[in-house]
Structures are given as C-alpha cells and as structure tokens.
Amino acid sequence: MNPSFDVIVIGSGIGGLVTATQLAAKGAQVLVLESYLIPGGSSGYFERQGYRFDVGASMIFGFGEKGTTNLLTRALDAVNVSQETIIDPVQIHYHLPNELDLKVERVYEKFLQNLIAYFRHEETGIRRFYDECWKVFNCLNSMDLLSLEEPRYLLRTFWQHPLSCLGLVKYLPQNVGDVARRYIKDPELLKFIDMECYCWSVVSADMTPMINAGMVFSDRHYGGVNYPKGGVGQIA
Ligand SMILES: Cc1cc2nc3c(=O)[nH]c(=O)nc-3n(C[C@H](O)[C@H](O)[C@H](O)COP(=O)(O)OP(=O)(O)OC[C@H]3O[C@@H](n4cnc5c(N)ncnc54)[C@H](O)[C@@H]3O)c2cc1C
C-alpha cells in the first residue's frame, strides 16, 4: 500500500496538533510525525515515581466557555472532544519587594481591590489602565482569531467587524509602558506593571505590545485560567 496524505504535520506540540485536528475536521487526510516518545511537546508530561509532571505550560488560557478567545475549547469541539478543567481562582500570586504580596484573582474587581489596597492614591489610574486593556480585549473577543498573515481572513474580518478592527489599529503601535504612564505616576506601581508583563511576555512593559497585554490582562478574568483535569498532557 502506498498511503497518500493531503498534509503532513511535523511535530505534535499544541501548534501541530491543533493544525492537524482542524484540517482533519475539514476532511483532510493528515499525518502527524513526532520524533519524541509521546505527543505534546512543551505541553507534554513526564512521570517520576508515580507522579505526573507538566513539561512546561501550566497556566492554560483558551479553555473559557464564551467569546472567541477560548481557542482550546473550540479546537477540541471541532473534533468532538471535550476536556474537563479545574478553575484556577488565582492566575499569579506575586511576592515582590516592599512586602507587595498580591493575588491576581480571577474576579476582576477582586484583583483591582487587592492592587488598590496597596496604591490607594492611584485608584483612578489603576482602573483606567486596566479598563483600557479591556477595550483591546473586547475588540479581539468580537472577531474570529485566525492568522494575521491570511489576507482573505483580514478582509472578511474587517468587513464583519469594522469598528473592532479600527479599534485594534489604534492600539497596534502602542506599548504597555506608554499607556500605563498615561494614567499612573507612582514608580512602584509602574514597576508592578513591568513585572506583570515580564511574567508572560518576558520583556518589560515598554517592549510589550498593548494588543498582547489587552488579551492576557483581560482574558484571565474573562475566560480565566483553567487547568486540564489529569494534567496539561491530557490536551494532546
Ligand atoms: C517551561 C515552560 C513553561 C511554559 N509555561 C506556559 C504557560 O504557563 N502557559 C502557556 O500558555 N504557555 C507556556 N509555555 C509555552 C507553551 O508551552 C508553548 O508555547 C507551546 O506548548 C508550544 O507549542 P508548539 O506546538 O509551538 O511547539 P512545541 O511544544 O515545542 O512542539 C514541537 C514538537 O515538535 C517535535 N519536533 C521537533 N522537530 C521535529 C522533527 N524534526 N521531527 C518530528 N518532530 C519534531 C518536538 O518533539 C515537539 O513535540 C511554556 C513553555 C515552557 C518551555
């Protein structure tokens, strides 16, 4: 037999698997090749002495139930699979200098209250900054999130959601540092926002695009962080 495939995906990390399953769901014959022992890549797992450990990713976005940012839920739906998850009530618990001990609660207002408790004089600025992140998120969350390199997708999205697209265009050249300084003066609080950026974009607020921050700083309160029951390797 000489098997033939429409697509061969090399690598069974989350990227390869999502690509493969979406193509298979649309009827393509797909072959996934993996050089390691098990699938999953950086979202895989390993076992030691009866315990299962995540290889890498453990703070999982994309398992929300609503909107368009729940990419993992929708990718699994497309192939009639569901994954039970456990809600993470706190995304990050910061232990920072000057006894800044702060939980980023899933409930937005609770998180704001935690932060405002340390910076009462900046309450208005804090609310304005994080609310600005929501404006970015609301634009993203109103459209299907596909590849920005696909001209037909871009054209269709602009046609369907012109206001959201124009909203995003406004934020494209902006970085988090500039937006934060517009509302916040306290250097300690600006350092905290820097730290918020480092935690997931591994660069400072000045180097973090506002579009990315809008997604992460808001989706953690919208779709939330949800841990797959049985470990991250379950997704693969
Ligand atoms: C320590 C760590 C912590 C992380 N924490 C988080 C987190 O909390 N939240 C989050 O969202 N993200 C996190 N990430 C990032 C996330 O895990 C990765 O972005 C994501 O899993 C990458 O998926 P991928 O499919 O692009 O690549 P990979 O997971 O790298 O998959 C690539 C696959 O291709 C295979 N491969 C490579 N070359 C070949 C070849 N020639 N032939 C066959 N197979 C090949 C590899 O074996 C691998 O299985 C973390 C990553 C790490 C390393």
Order of helices and strands: EHEEEHEEEHHHHHHHE
Bound molecules: flavin-adenine dinucleotide
Find the count of extended strands (DSSP E, 2+ residues).
8
Coarse shape: globular
Task: Describe the strand arrangement of the main beta sheet, using strand numbers.
Answer: 1-2
How many domains comprise the coordinates?
2
Secondary structure: helix percent: 40-55%
Tell me what portion of residues adopts beta-strand conformation. Answer: 5-15%
Separation of termini? 29 Å
Structural Rg: 20 Å
Main beta-sheet annotation: 2 strands, parallel
Structural class: alpha+beta
Compact description:
With 236 residues, this protein is α+β, with helices and mostly antiparallel strands. Helix content is 44%, strand content 15%.
Question: Notable features of this structure?
Answer:
globular, binds flavin-adenine dinucleotide, FAD/NAD(P)-binding domain, two-stranded antiparallel sheet, 236 residues, alpha+beta, 9 helices, single chain
Question: Care to describe what's here?
Answer:
It is a single chain. α7 runs antiparallel to α8. The model has no long low-confidence stretch (mean pLDDT about 90). Strands 1-2 form a two-stranded parallel ribbon. Strands 3-4 form a two-stranded antiparallel sheet. Helices cover about 45% and strands about 15% of the residues. α1 links the parallel β1 and β2. The chain starts with 6 loop residues before the first strand and ends in an 8-residue tail after the last strand. The longest helix has 18 residues. The chain is an alpha+beta fold and about 240 residues long. The protein is globular. It contains 9 helices and 8 strands. The protein has 2 domains: about 90 residues, FAD/NAD(P)-binding domain (3-Layer(bba) Sandwich); about 130 residues, no CATH class. The relative contact order is 0.17. The structure holds flavin-adenine dinucleotide (FAD).
